[in-house]
Fold this sequence. Notes:
seven-stranded antiparallel sheet, 11 strands, disordered C terminus, binds flavin mononucleotide, EC 2.7.1.26, nucleotide-binding, Riboflavin_kinase_dom_sf, riboflavin kinase activity, ATP-binding
Amino acid sequence: MAVFRRGLPHFAVGTVVKGFGRGSKELGIPTANFPEDVVENLPEDIGTGIYYGWAKVDCGPTYKMVMSIGWNPYYNNKKKSMETHIMHVFDNDFYGSELRVVMLGYVRPEKNFKSLESLIEAINSDIAEADKQLSLPELQSFREHAFFLKKSNAACHNGISNGLADGILSNGIANGHQANDTAISGSSQDTIVNGTIQNGQVS
Ligand SMILES: Cc1cc2nc3c(=O)[nH]c(=O)nc-3n(C[C@H](O)[C@H](O)[C@H](O)COP(=O)(O)O)c2cc1C
């Protein structure tokens, strides 16, 4: 039984939008940005900072991820963002794709850094911490959560994804968290509450 920080696990889904592109170009650590409405719908309990969890693009596999929420003090952004670095090397950009994430743990607050190198070093250490935590069996189980098996993207509706035929699961959730936010098992049968529909993508 895992014990979660207040507000977690948090499930979010949205279409990947363009950020400033610095993640790939300057940091060598690409991030996928959620649109404004997903960021604005974050519950109060989820403050700015660095989180880890699982992520899935369209009908693809579910990968480990790290996420930064906030104003990126190093770059002094004017708009709050929610940027996911998926711990997998993708061949192409996936702007316009559907991104599903579950945030399971918090690593640290956002910080300013004296150099780009120290920002990169901090992110790499976040990735190592995420890798370690997500290998724990109680967090591994979220990889198979019903949220990730619910296929809302049109491209997924014609076939079989993740070994499961279309439409066999009905307890979908978008941008919300589970009823019991302190201790849950992470089974794919968990009851989900507080779900709201975003972008018309979740049926
Ligand atoms: C795991 C992780 C941790 C991050 N930590 C910080 C941080 O502490 N301070 C900061 O200014 N930006 C932080 N960032 C944000 C990066 O600066 C950001 O991803 C980069 O500016 C790229 O943004 P862009 O794709 O919108 O250009 C972090 C990003 C990730 C993925």
